[in-house]
Amino acid sequence: MTAKRGRYSAGEGTRVLLIETAERLFARRGYDGVTLADIRAAAGQHNASVIGYYFGSKENLLRAIFAHRLPAISADRDALAARSIADGGAPTTRTALWILVQPLANTLRDGNNYVGLLDRLMETEILAHSFRSVDPAMTDSGFGVDRALHTALAELPEELRRQRIGMVYESALHTLARYNRSGTVPGRAELSSLIDAWDGLLHAPASDETRSIRDGIRI
User: Fold this and answer.
1) pLDDT, tens digit, for every residue of 62-88?
2) 151 near 91, Cβ under 8 Å?
């Protein structure tokens, strides 16, 4: 029985090693820039079939990265959301931004390259495809933030809301990925300053020029 448990522990350790090695390489070079052989070599694995044994395919390995990281991120977001509800009042864009950003910033330690991975994958079809196959319970908190932002910006036209929220998502990932690549972690004051900027972007008034163009009026 002891030997069986030992084999299981070693097997799980190898699985996690492959997941975290793949995450690091994908974050550095992109999904398409990394082969299974690259991952195997970087993980110090000599068995040519080891990734196939544990995951079956490269895409399943990517899904395993999400399954490895998302539970902790989701739990952090749920805790922040619960605290916000307990404090009372209608959710604001600033509150939603903290719920979005803080859990991602919390990953910037202990060799965690999840934010760098997301940044690399953000504009690829593989990201959306992989997320669709992830357990919905692990992505509900992220969709909750998206709904909160749309609700808090209800006064904006839908097209403008989508554009600005998308810009915030891209900027947040790019910015946190730079911390990831430099091996640093932003402090609370730094994060608050960044959220000032992203909140300002969401609420920036439309210029006369933009309103005129949207209304089809030549100025």
Assistant:
1) 999 999 999 999 999 999 999 988 887
2) yes
Counting other chains too, the contacts that 41-47 makes at CB distance below 8 Å and 24 or more residues apart are 43/17, 43/18, 45/14, 45/17, 45/18
For the whole model, what pTM was predicted?
0.87
Q: Residue 145 in contact with residue 96, Cβ under 8 Å? A: yes
AA letter at 79:
A
> 219: Cβ–Cβ under 8 A, 6 or more apart, which residues?
208, 209, 212
Q: What does the alpha-carbon distance between residue 26 and residue 116 come to, in Å, rounded to a whole number?
A: 8
**What is the C-alpha to C-alpha distance for residues 96 and 154, in angstroms, rounded to an integer?**
14
Please tell me the distance from the alpha carbon of residue 190 to that of residue 211, in angstroms, as a whole number: 33
Question: Please, are residues 74 and 82 in contact by the beta-carbon 8 Å criterion?
Answer: no
- CA dist 4 and 19 (Å) reads 23
Token representation of residue 8: 């299981």
Q: Which residue has the tokens 């699985």?
A: 15
